Amino acid sequence: TPPMQYRDPTTNEPAGYTIELTKLLAADLGEGITIDYVEVPFGQLFSLLESGRCDMIEPVTNLPARALRGDFTPIPAFYAPVYVGLKPNSTVQKPEDLNAENIRFATLQGTSQLAVARRTFPKAQFASFPSATDAINEVASGRADATVQSSSSIVRALDAGARIKLLPTGALYLESVSFFMRQGDPRTLNWMSNWIGYHASIGTLATLYERFVGTASREKYKLQTVAVGPAGQPIRSN
Questions:
Q1: Can you give the pTM of this predicted structure?
Q2: What architecture is the 82-173 domain classified under in CATH?
Q3: Which of 2, 7, 146, 152 is most open to solvent, judged by the fewest CB atoms within 10 Å of its CB?
Q4: How many other C-beta atoms are found inside a 10 Å radius of the C-beta of residue 37?
Q5: What local confidence, expressed as pLDDT, does residue 66 receive?
Q6: For residue 142, is it left (φ>0), alpha (ψ between -120 and 50) or beta?
Q7: Does residue 81 have a cis bond before it (omega within 30 degrees)?
Q8: Which residues touch 129 (CB under 8 Å, ≥6 apart)?
Q9: Dist. CA 23–CA 159, nearest whole Å
Q10: For the chain, where are the alpha helices, taking DSSP H only?
C-alpha cells in the first residue's frame, strides 16, 4: 500500500513511510538487530500477531475492539484523513446523501473504514473486497456508488488514473494509526512508546511523513495532511 509500505519497483526491497520507521527502530535497538518482513493480506494481520508468528504489525487504526486483542503505542505513527470517493457521474454533495438504501459502498475487508462507514451510513449496502484497488475500481466502474478510503489510497488511485471524484465536503474523519503489538509484553510496549514519543518530539515523524505522503497529497490533489509533531501533536496543512 504505497506510500506507506510497498516494494521498490527497481530493487524489489521494502520501501515507504512505515518501512523507514522500522529501519530506524532497528537501528535504535542496536547492532545486530534485523527485521524480517512478512507479507500477508490485511485481514490476516491480527491472527498472525495473536498466534505469536510475529512481534508487531504495521501501524493500524486504534479501534477499541482491536485494543482487546493487542497493545497500541499511545502516540500514533501517523494520522490519516479519510475521504469518500464517488463514482464518476455521482451527484452526491454531502455525507448524509449517502445514508440511503439505494447506495452501495465498496470497501476493503477488515478495515476501520468499513467499521466507521457502517455506523455513519447504516441504511446503505456494503460489499467488501480483498484490496483497496479492487474496492476503488468497483466505484470507478460505476458498479458501486462510493468507497471510504484513507488519503494515501486515494492518492494512489488518482495517480493510477482511477475515474473517481471526491465528496466535495472534504475529509469524512481523521484516523489515528499506531504500531500494534502482542499483549502481555510490557517491556516492548514501554520501549516502543518511549521510542515513538522521542521521534515525534524531534520531528522525525513529521519529516518522513512529508517526504512520502504530505507533498503529493497536498500539492497534486489539494488533500488535507496531518503530520505527527512535537509531543505527538498534529501539524495540519491543506
A1: 0.85
A2: 3-Layer(aba) Sandwich (3.40)
A3: 7
A4: 12
A5: 92
A6: left
A7: no
A8: 106, 107, 108, 109, 135, 138
A9: 27
A10: 17-29, 45-50, 64-67, 112-120, 132-140, 151-159, 186-201, 204-209, 215, 221
Beta strand 165-166 with 125-129: parallel, antiparallel or unpaired?
unpaired
Among residues 83, 57, 92, the alpha carbon closest in space to that of 157 is found at 83
Question: Which residue spans of the chain are classified as CATH 3.40.190.10?
Answer: 6-79+175-237, 82-173
What confidence category does residue 236 fall into, taking pLDDT thresholds of 50, 70 and 90?
Answer: confident
In the beta sheet, which residues pair with residue 79? 176
Distance CA 225, CA 211 (A): 12
Grid coordinates representing 201?
518530539
Domain 6-79+175-237 is found in CATH 3.30.70.790: no
Separation CA 182–CA 117 (nearest Å): 27
Joined grid coordinates for residue 210? 512529508
State the cell numbers at 73.
503505542
Instruction: Output the pLDDT for position 37.
Output: 87
Contact of 66 with 179, CB cutoff 8 Å? no
Cell 484497488 belongs to: 133
**Is the confidence at residue 238, as pLDDT, over 80?**
no
